[in-house]
Design a protein that fits this description.
Elements (H helix, E strand, L loop, with lengths): L3 E6 L3 H12 L4 E7 L5 H8 L3 E4 L5 H14 L4 E6 L4 H10 L3 E4 L4 H12 L4 E2 L2 H10 L7 H11 L4 H8 L3 H15 L4 H7 L29 H8 L7
Parallel strand pairs: 1-2, 1-3, 3-4, 4-5, 5-6
Helix pairs in contact: 7-9, 7-10, 8-9
């Protein structure tokens, strides 16, 4: 089994010592190293090539945001996780929108922290309390998604790329991008990964994998019933090249 390599950015050595003991008891993880400041993490990430960077919030969200942007551009295989003492629902969602792949509180249990690292290490987005984002989504205008937009969400959750979605729906890749733009505007989500992780929680979305195996259900069964004309209206005037 491939181990999940982790780099820790944490100011307190005693905390790092505790993490070392935790990872020693869970061989699926490997602590590649640690730095005391986020400013020291750039060289460490380049040298150690960790799968996950677990960072505290000491550097401040502005510095963390700049660092995350740097990671996305230069070290996209390294996924950052924010390990924080406390963060509001809105701030947690904003952190994920910035590019952080996980947010977990330092007061959380060891098993919760490990769950987060497993999910992020597997390339997924993780939030400690998924009900936070579910509640946020339902408070947004997600219920106003058109039938076509819901179909796009269902296919995003199934792991399809824009080109594959376009072929599945008989539209252009550019039109898929337009639908995604509208979906992001209505739900408040700005990141494709977050949509893939939590799109199933949007009102009216039912993934094919959740339907009975013998139902013979198609894509149309994955969205709440709406007038077919609605999807057609959403296509009118959209002519964007692939």
């Amino acid at each position: 089994m491939e181990r999940i390599q982790i780099l820790v950015s944490e100011a307190q050595p005693i905390v790092v010592e505790g993490l070392q003991k935790v990872f020693a008891d869970h061989p699926e993880f490997e602590l590649r190293g640690w730095v005391a400041k986020l400013s020291e993490a750039t060289d460490a990430v380049r040298a150690l090539q960790p799968r996950v960077l677990l960072t505290d919030q000491n550097a401040g969200m502005n510095s963390i945001s700049r660092f995350v942007n740097m990671l996305k551009n230069t070290q996209p295989a390294c996924h950052p996780v924010l390990w924080t003492t406390d963060l509001s629902e809105a701030d947690a969602l904003h952190a994920v929108q910035l590019g952080l792949r996980g947010v977990v509180r330092k007061t959380a249990s060891v098993s919760t922290l490990l769950d987060c690292l497993r999910e992020v290490g597997a390339g997924r987005v993780w939030l400690e309390d998924s009900s936070q984002i579910v509640g946020f989504l339902h408070r947004r205008e997600a219920s106003r998604l058109t039938t076509r937009e819901r179909e796009v969400v269902a296919l995003i959750c199934a792991g399809l790329k824009n080109k594959q979605i376009a072929e599945k729906l008989g539209i252009t890749s550019g039109t898929v991008k337009v639908h995604l733009m509208h979906i992001f505007e209505k739900t408040g989500l700005k990141d494709r990964f977050v949509l893939a992780a939590h799109g199933r929680n949007l009102p009216g979305i039912r993934l094919a994998a959740e339907l009975p195996a013998d139902s013979g259900a198609g894509l149309a069964d994955c969205v709440a019933p709406k007038a077919s004309a609605e999807a057609s209206r959403s296509e009118v005037g959209v002519k964007v090249g692939a």
